[in-house]
Amino acid sequence: MKITGPSLPIAPGKIAPPIAPGVPSTGGADFLTTKLDVAVQWAQSNSLWPMPFGTACCAIEFMSVVSSHYDLARFGAEVVRFSPRQADLLIVAGTVVDKLAPVLKKIYDQMSEPKWVISMGVCACTGGFYRAYHVVQGVDEIVPVDVYVAGCPPTPENLILGIMMLQKKIQSGELARHREAKTFVPIRVGEDPVTAIPAYSNAVMAHVPGRHALPGMPPSAEDEATPGGKREMDAEIAAARGRENP
Amino acid sequence: MAPPKGLEFLPVLEKNLGGRVTAREGLAADVPTLVTDAASLHETARFLRDDPAAAYDLFLDLASADLSRLPGAQAPKTGERFQANYILYSTKRNAHLRLKVNLPEKEPSVPTLTDVWPAANWFEREAWDLMGIDFKGHPNQKRLLTHGGFVGHALRKDYDAKQRWLCTEEDLLQTELAAQTDEPSDMFETTTLNFGPSQPATHGTLRIVMRLDGETIVAAESECGYLHRCFEKMSEAHTYSQVFPYTDRLNYCSPMLNNNGYARAIESLLGVTPPPRALAVRTILGEFSRVMDHLVCLAANLVDIGGLTNFWYAYQPREEIYSLLEACSGARLTVSYGRIGGLAKDVPGNFVPWCREIIKGTRERISDVETLVTRNKIVWNRFRGTGVVTKEQALAWGFTGPCLRASGVPFDLRKDQPYEWYGEVDFDVPVMTEGDNYARYLVRVEEMKQSLRIIEQILDKLPGGPVRSDDYRVILPPKEMVYNEMEALIYHFKLVFEGVKVPPGEIYSATEGANGELGFSVISDGSGFPYRLKVRPPCFPLFAAFEKIIKGGMVSDAVATLGLLNIIAGELDR
Amino acid sequence: MAARVVTLKVPETTWAESIYLVEIVKGLARTLGHFLKNLTNMKGLPTIQYPEMLRKYSGRFRGRHILKKREDDTLKCVACYMCETACPAECIHIEAGEHPVLAYEKYPTVFEIDLLRCVYCGYCVDACPKDAIWMTRDYELSFFDRKSAVLGIPELTEKPSDTSQGGPGYGYRPYEGESPMKKAGQFEPSGLPLLPALLVRGVAINRMPPPPPKPPAPSASPAAKG
């Protein structure tokens, strides 16, 4: 049985080989800390609490994975939590459309660290065969993705393989996640169709045919909520507090 | 001159309206068509609804079209560009009707029909959103499927299919829209609850903004479009047979039924009949898909109200049906098994005994679920008397399918206008009069049992023969011929590169999907690409009426109602 | 053979059901029955314990694609672009080059499938006129990044892993059984060897359905034949 990806687990104390281009690995650190890291990572990977952000057909296959035929509970991921505050694995299952994009970003921001993202199904990975006016061409325009699970919809075994690959990635000690996308920058673009480009991220411009990145895109800020989104949330909280204590 | 078939009331209508309403000839397989103009639309609509000779009480669809790129004889008159096609149905006369209005290019507008048929509300919003037709007097003409930051009307022919627009949080529906309450509650504050779109109980990306007084819902507004995947625009860019994978993903819980409905529409437009074995297998797999859809509806809904065990019991037959579909077509869920003119491949050799085994297992699991649920007091308290929809309301709101039958109207296309093998089998159509959630539950359970009965009867007399038509202008020739013969290779080449050349015309074709009437309005221009393909989603009017059904009830009743209406977002938003 | 309308009645509430305890016992008996059945018959559990157990998919499963080769180890693909055109997701990218062997004419210098765009519909297999692309039963397609999901010719000619516990692991294919292709070169490019093929074609034409009837010509000249 073949699993694509490095062979793991990594012995503690050794420097882990890079998982994928650009993914740093932990260096050979203190023996005690490394042992603790290994234990923590083992615990994290075997008790992932998925949050299924299920939109379309892939959500039905996800429901099959948690059913009796495939039983995700065997991997410690039975506790399917629909609240992002209680989950650490966001499984984006199904097509994400432009209207849903701010919602996905908000949900991702509400999850606390450490958090991982599996993009399930080709619609979530690249937009699939919906090269259309309302479909996000891959959720890595919005959130950084750790594992891409291909299929339309992927067979439940494929999703389980994706979760196993993620487990190995966690156990390898990779903390700075492999990110291709930048933060979601809410720029309202002009109405001229030629210049009206979704300004999600530089990396993704290559996937939008015939379009080019907007000049002067801000660099990505790791683990920082979007400027507009965070400000809004703060403003909302302040307003609510103001209402309660006038 | 005798009026055309299906339009016997036409002389009276013509007398009232002079020359402003005319009948239009179309294909024999198509529904009868009346053409009118925007000025007399409202009067015509009132007549069609109220006159006992017409009695079109059910508003089914509004298929708008942009005719600017139609070639030759079909091209619109100068100055006219848009067209609004209203599809209506009369439950008393079992007759469909298409009411067509041609609209000018500059500022196309018609009066709204929401005061005649309340179901028209969301259909008109969608036509405004995607085609830009203005509906004068519409209570809430805002974008429905696309987001607030979207510019332009996507289904117009001059709109580039790949042009996207950024959506920020401000572009989503603002909560103060549900702030207007009918009667102000003077003692306590009302709160606003945003339900969805990322919510487990909504079974998909639906959003309802509710105004609550305690637990009672004072006002609600539902919003869709969170899965608008541009099916109709994609279908204009792909050939007729390339649209099959897209139709799979419409109602993804019962993919074979979508394939069947689409194939039937294109075959009617072409005048091609698939072989009897293909129709029988389509019916069998379609009924299995219907069982699958009802199982997932009940499973998910019972999870919502707390009966988690039923989820696993109900999923067991689904897995077995998945194995069957995978052995036939190659994929579990998105089968793409139908083709125009038949099926992709013939069924495997052990199809008949395998189906019988699956039927036996499914019956056992349905009985498991029934033992736990049907006589359960908690289920009675949750389902009985909640989410009540009366018969008049159901018809006014455009319901079809199990929800309409649970409210007392025995409309089922398999019975009223049989197609495929439904005319050859005996089955019961369950109807109830209460119109509450318990009625919808009972109707669905009974429909599942009847579907199994239909499958057994067809298995007993499954015909042999081919499953693909031998007309190679519509379906790919078999590989023995393609590899070795030049003419077959040429047919193959032309079908792949240019698609099935459907002669110019128009059709509305409907089949009974799992949720109700699944209709396809197709306009073809003679090329291999559909010119306009509009899907009439059965759950669209259901979700449009949802905000009215739950008003006055409690939040928990809203959850139970939403589950049993069975809203599938893939179909709702297309 | 007809459908009839049956009006269902809400069942009457009996006293036993009202107090609910009886129903609890009945329900628990049903679930307990399943539990004990599963406990005593662990082999009959429906759970497929991936990755230790593998599900046997059918010979029509639509998984990863594979490019077939002729006996002389060249790709059967002649870069005719039919699969690229038939693909609804536009996930296949081909660049053609001229093949030194005249009978083969062309070959793909680049053949890439983006597995993260592909919807696994099998249309490429249906569209290929040269029996050059099949699908396998490989469904283990998960990646850490998007670039590694674009498969080129070396990955696409890899034999399928044996995910089906027996059998070479091929899935969706254009025909069942033996290949109906009569000869590998098929159509000679030009010249005399075409003549026997023309005779064969005469037989083949008769097996095709007749073309649609042409409308009658207004005035038929004696030389023209319809």
Would you give an account of this structure?
The complex is a heterotrimer of chains A (246), B (574) and C (226). By secondary structure, chain A is an alpha/beta fold. Chain A has a domain at 31-171: Rossmann fold, CATH 3.40.50. Helices cover 30% and strands 7% of the residues of chain A. Chain A has helices at 31-45, 57-65, 101-110, 122-126, 156-171, 227-244, and strands spanning 50-54, 89-93, 116-120, 147-149. The longest helix of chain A has 18 residues, at 227-244. Chain A is globular. Chain B is globular. Helix content of chain B is 39%, strand content 16%. In chain B, helix 6 (255-270) runs antiparallel to helix 7 (276-304) and helix 17 (539-549) packs antiparallel against helix 18 (555-565). In chain B, a hairpin with a 7-residue loop joins strand 15 and strand 16. The model of chain B has no long low-confidence stretch (mean pLDDT 89). Chain B has a five-stranded mixed β-sheet. Chain C has 226 residues and is α+β, with helices and mostly antiparallel strands. Among the domains of chain C are: 13-47; 65-156, Alpha-Beta Plaits (2-Layer Sandwich), CATH 3.30.70.3270. Chain C has six helices and seven strands. Chain C has helices spanning 15-19, 21-40, 82-86, 123-127, 153-156, 194-207; strands spanning 3-7, 65-67, 92-98, 106-114, 133-135, 142-143, 150-151. The radius of gyration of chain C is 29 Å and the shape is elongated. Chains B and C meet through helix 5, helix 8, helix 9, helix 10 and strand 13 of B and strand 1, helix 2, helix 3, helix 4 and helix 6 of C. Strand 4 of chain A pairs antiparallel with strand 6 of chain C, so a sheet runs across the interface.
